[in-house]
Amino acid sequence: MNNTTAHSAIDDSVRAEIMRRIKAAEAEHNVKVLFAIESGSRAWGFASPNSDYDVRFIYAHAKDWYVAIDVEEQRDVIEYPIVDEIDINGWDIRKALKLFSKSNPAFIEWLQSPIVYVDDGFFAAHAKRLMPQIVASHKGIYHYLHMAKGNFREYLKKERVPLKKYFYVLRPLLAIMWLEKYDEPAPIEFDKLRELVKENLTLDAAISDLLARKRVSLEKEYAPAVPVINEFIEAELTRHENYTANVKKKVVDFDALNQLFKTTLMRYESE
């Protein structure tokens, strides 16, 4: 198991505990973890001091597990309760690749996380190479638009608002802008996304102030609404109010996905 990390935001003792739990999950369920990353606010770059550690992983069973009449009825996720702010769960490789074929935004974000706990050196690298021929930008836009609308409507149309919910609206709106501009999966780091609005100096200053407050505040802290940010959000939501995708049809290469599935299992068997 190769362990890597591309980010210094995870304390060494916490990282060690996360690795212990990943290895325990492998032993408990008789699986191999292929790729494990940090998702959520710590990977996005706007964690509060008491934010959860959202650990997500992809795992594989031995090859014979998949050669069964009732494989469709077998459980394809591993989940654990949150303990000491560590939230850890994973998807079976077959589930992950089926969702990948549908441009599942969660899996696509996992592949791009800057915080990596486990990387077998094969699965994620090959999945990333397949993204240009599989991932459809319009599906990401629909996903992020739904996320932004829901959080804005539910939390931000009040005089005092939960700080973190601003980022649960800003990040998806900026991700949409990225998808529109580049037609490729958006990075998950908020600092990279906000480069798209750097020229709006008033908005950028307000976001910087909000980000500074979020990083030192508790997870459920409230603050007065920020008019300039609300104006940006409302303008973007209005712009997308009647969004209809200009669909660029992609024929999903199931042969490539099947080959990745089979090769990964063969590598597991040979170890």
From TrEMBL:
InterPro entries, per the entry: NT_sf (IPR043519), RlaP (IPR018775)
Name used for this protein in its record: Nucleotidyltransferase
Organism from which the protein derives: Pseudoalteromonas gelatinilytica
Biological classification of the source: Bacteria, Pseudomonadati, Pseudomonadota, Gammaproteobacteria, Alteromonadales
